[in-house]
Amino acid sequence: MRISARNQLPGKIETVKPGATTAHITIKLDGGATVVASITNEAVTELGLQQGDSVYAVIKASDVMVGKA
Fold first, then answer.
1. Element (DSSP H or E) covering residue 43
2. For the Mop domain, which residue ranges apply (predicted)?
């Protein structure tokens, strides 16, 4: 599959935590950082996502917000 997003970060799924309607997917990136994605439970099922799967975190955003404590 080809997509237009340029921010495609390869990694492996560490955890899949389903909730009432969405699941939190923790991805350990190849560089060592961790990304958590929130996707629907339906998407988890359709993609057959499970711990250890090789995946891409695809980031497409029109805005980036910065906060300071």
1. helix 41-47
2. 2-68
Task: State the pLDDT at residue 20.
Answer: 97
Give dist(CA 45, CA 5) in Å, integer: 23
Q: CA angle, corner 36, sides to 18 and 5, nearest 5?
A: 115
Q: What is the domain partition of the chain in residue ranges?
A: 7-57
Among left, alpha and beta (phi > 0; psi -120 to 50; other), residue 62 is: alpha
Please give the structure tokens belonging to residue 32: 């060592």
Mean pLDDT of the chain: 92
pTM confidence score: 0.84
Residue with tokens 């799967």, as numbered in its chain? 53
Q: What is the CATH number of domain 7-57?
A: 2.40.50.100
